[in-house]
Every structure is written in structure tokens, then in C-alpha cells.
Amino acid sequence: MTQVKYNNTRATLAIAKASFRSILRSPSAVVFSLAFPLIFIVVFANIGGGGMSVDVGVAKGCDTTSVIYKALAKNKIIHLIKDQSADEMNKNLAKGSIDAILDIKLNNSGWTALPTLPALGNKAPFEVSVQYSHASADKGAVLKSALNNIFYQIQSVQFQEIQKRSPVPLSKAVDFKETTITGREYKYIDFILPGQLGFSLLSSGVFGTAFVFLSLRITLVIKRFFATPVKRSSIVLGEAIARVVFALLGALFIILVGHFAFGFTLIHGVTTVLNMLVLCTIGLVIFMGFGFTISGIAKNESSIPPISNIVT
Fold this sequence. Notes:
By secondary structure, the chain is α/β, with parallel strands linked by helices. The chain folds into 2 domains: 11-46 and 189-311, no CATH class; 54-165, 3-Layer(aba) Sandwich (D-Maltodextrin-Binding Protein, domain 2). It contains 10 helices and 4 strands; from the N terminus they run ααβαβαββαααααα. It has helices spanning 8-24, 27-47, 67-74, 86-95, 137-165, 189-218, 221-226, 232-262, 270-297, 304-311; strands at 54-58, 78-81, 100-106, 126-132. The chain has a 4-stranded mixed sheet, sandwiched between helices. Strand 1, helix 3 and strand 2 (78-81) form a beta-alpha-beta unit. The model has no long low-confidence stretch (mean pLDDT 82).
């Protein structure tokens, strides 16, 4: 009778198939690899895309018809608050609930939205008073920059009037030129999704592998494997294949959900997806190495989490 040679390749694939089924039936594997990352992506993608907003209180008696006020009202970053009393504004400014208090006074009643050269001598047409707070110094700097831009535009119009009326041609102090190039626009989801993808791989590679192999060791399943002709490398390789396939399917699912639901940027389309999956594979192999090591060190299941946290 001819003896059939044992096929370790088929044994490896059989172990991988059984391990993959076991992973799919494990609620913790599905939750930590798919559910948690998706929950974090949904939450942070919805709260992180609002951009900056500077809350500015408008003082009572502020000239709301001035060109400065109208320019601030058109600024999408500036949020003007007009329904608070002076005491409320001062308290909110001290607490940082509002970022500044604005008061505009008009010194020249003849000043228009497109001002001409005023006959006021050294007296400025507008008097702008702004109160800032150390509680929101960064947003105060944004408001100051917006005001300086408005002042620059007003002075540019003033300078043009002076040039028209002056018999002697006046040259500009600075010839300012600016261009805007087309660059990549980063969104909040572009930073959130890779981090959650790493969390998913870390959970599957380190914790999942360590718990599974320790369980196989405690229940003497590995010793039963050793009683068969299967090689030790086939056992490890079969488990690794199952983990890699499951993790890559999860990573692909997370990437597709992030792209189609939240606008995650795939700069080169399918090529970017493939590059990300290659990096995921490399990272998962490294994480599984930690998981195998931890499963050999740990004496029981309760010692795996602290050892894993120390290593990772």
C-alpha cells in the first residue's frame, strides 16, 4: 500500500480557514477591529469639521452702518453677537465664552462705504476700540488680523484718492503681489481615519493573537497539534494568514466607508488604497510578532493586557 506524503501546505490552509471562521464568530474581534474604529470616525468626523469661529461681542452704541462693521459681518470666521448687555459681555469675555468686544465710533458723518479723502486734518474717520481676553488669545489674534486687513483696504482707497488729487505722482511704498497655487486640501477625516486604522490593526495583531495562542496553549490544543505531522511553522503561518485576511478586509471596509461617507481623500484613487493595504500588512505582521511573544510570556489571560500595554 502506497503511503501518502503529508501535505503541510494543505494543513496550513486548513488551519487558516478554521482560524478565520473562529475570528468571524468572535464578537470582541469584530467590535474592536470594526465597530470601535467606525464609531470614533463617525463621532470625530462630525465634530471636527466646523472650522474656527471667533465670537465677537458688539458693544451698545457701536456704529453698525460703518464699512468696518459691514466687512466684519461678511467674514465667515467672525461671529458677531449683538443680543447681550454690557455686563454679560464683560463676564463672558473674562470667562472666554466670547473672544473680544468691538466698539466702532464714526468721527466723520460724511464717510461713506467708498470713502473719499476726508477733510479732517489729523483726525481719523473711525475710532475702533477692541477688548481682548487672555482666555482666548489665539482667536483674538485672528480678529486683529481681520481688522488690519480691513484697515489696509480702507487706507488703499484713501491713498488712491490722494494720488488723484496730488499734482505730483506718488509711488507706492510697497508693490504687493500675491498668487495662489492649487494644493491639496486637508480635511479632519484625513487625520482621524489613519489613526483609527492603526488602532484596528493593533487590536487585531497584538491583543487578538496573544489571547488566541494563550487559549490554545492552556487548552492543550497546541500539544494535540504536535501529535500530528503538521509543522510548527504551519500552525503559526495558518493563524497569521487568517489574521492578515481579516484585518485587511476590515481595513478596506474602513477606508471605503471613510471615503464615500465622510470624504476621506484618496489622492491617487485605487493606487492609494493598495499602498495603504500594503502598509497595513507590514504593520500587522509586526504587531503579530508582539502578540506571539506576549502569548509565550503570559501565564494566564489576566496578564496579557498589562504586558501588551507595556510593549505597545
